[in-house]
Fold this protein.
Amino acid sequence: MSYKKIEELTQGPNRIHLLFPTPEESQKNPDLAYSDHLPILSKVPLLNHGHLNIISLNILGNVVWSGVHAPGAEETDEQTEERYQRIVQVLIKSIALHQVDVLALQEATSGLIIPILDESLGASWEIITDEFGIVTCINNNNWTVEKTSANHRDRIRSLTLKNKNAPELTIDFHNIWGAFDQLPKKLEDQCKNALTESHSTMAVIMGDTNSRLAPLDNTPRNIVTGAIPLAFNQANGFPQGQQIPDYPDGGFYKDELGIIHQLETHILDFEHGEIFLDPRQESAVNPWPEYRMVMCLDDHYEVNPIVGESTIFEYEKSLQEEFNNEKILVRVAANCFNHKAVAVAFPRVLTDHYSAIHERLGSEPGFQFKALDSDSKFFNCIFAPIDKVSLLQQTISDHIYQKNHPVAAKIKTFFATPSATRDAVIGFAITIAALAVTLGILIATMGIGAIPVLVLGSSLVASLGTLFTGLTLAGIATGIVGFFTGAAVVVGLMKRNLEATVDEAHTIIPKAEPIETVKEKTPEEENRHFSSPISVKAVAQDVAAEDEALKPSSPSLTK
């Protein structure tokens, strides 16, 4: 598209994408409207064999359900055929420009589009049509169709393709026009089954999923590929007549190792079939802010942690176990400017838990809360901006703790939440603790004084006053002052009592006399008693006297 054309579009009315006309413009000039989807190009890498180039487009079967035509617009078969003619002319340019191998169309009125395709594509293309609105065209210059089948229930056309230049290379290609669902799980399962049940070298599924797809990166940019039919605005609660953007187009492929990847896609313009990127900044686009869950089939979501240290599937499983409900769904979400979020969908049976979490996060900026419908099964969904996922995780964790430990949770919440009552209770508790410790020490030391009792009593009164008046800091302050003042007085009393005890002990036990030191004798002193002048006769007399005294007394004998 020329820069002049882009400038003209940019200076015009605000658009959900520069390539989409507004309903008012389409009403004035119907030739501006091709479809309410944009053509997308994807290049699937083939091992050592280049790429499989695919163009996909929902060509809008009826303008009554259009996102670019004014509500109530109608279109005759002749007008539809003329619009299809303009679409195919652009597609032919794109096919030549990008060397396309597969053309996948959805929502097609085959009786009107097939004659145009036959004439425009020529004999080198094989065209396969389905009664449920899918048309698949294969370039026979490079590929041959080995077999084909249709899944009417899921609206999927499947083909097995063989590469003419490398016969060992086979690809299962699936063209999908999915049934709309606000939750991506059902479409994920359909796409995954189509890819994993393949016996070919590789498998690809691409089309209008009627779910949502967003790039794996978080770079802000316009990712719109479709416009929601304006006839749905009232049912969806959207403003009447306002264009609402959508991003359902794209797909996935399974490589030769069995790993699933999301297709990288490029939007093509309706004028020349060239790759086009909306150059406007976010402020100029004024994007629709609504988050929507996106399909998370890429291996990226299986291995990379997004919720704390957990992948979305690990976190999903943990919530399912905590709440004993396998219907809980956790997915990445995005708005139309690729701003990401994490979404948690609770089935209606868990409404009480959802409401409790909603109450805590309802006023948090950036969070969104919506009721969603999946096959008439209703869910309540929380969307947390990607930079606030930790807050969502912590809030849910706190709620689970409260659910499992209600009494402990109330106590924890009370002391964790700043309030006058909480601070008063803390002050009161400090004072009571100080009183108990001080009195215990005083009693243990058999002494109690008036000063600590007075100080602690004052603290107790102040804390009680705090408890009832809400002077939050006073109770804490007086409690601390009472504790340390009382402790200081107790130390003083203990010292005084210790000194008194020592004095009393001195009074009871008399003072001991000094002990005389015994002097060691010299050898001369040791032998002195042997050299003393003692009479030998006197000694003998003493010995005789002792012997006489020891003799037993005998009675007198008479004849």
Notes: The first strand starts at residue 40 and ends at 45. The mean pLDDT is 85. The two ends are 177 Å apart (CA to CA). The CA atoms of residues 77 and 305 lie 51 Å apart.
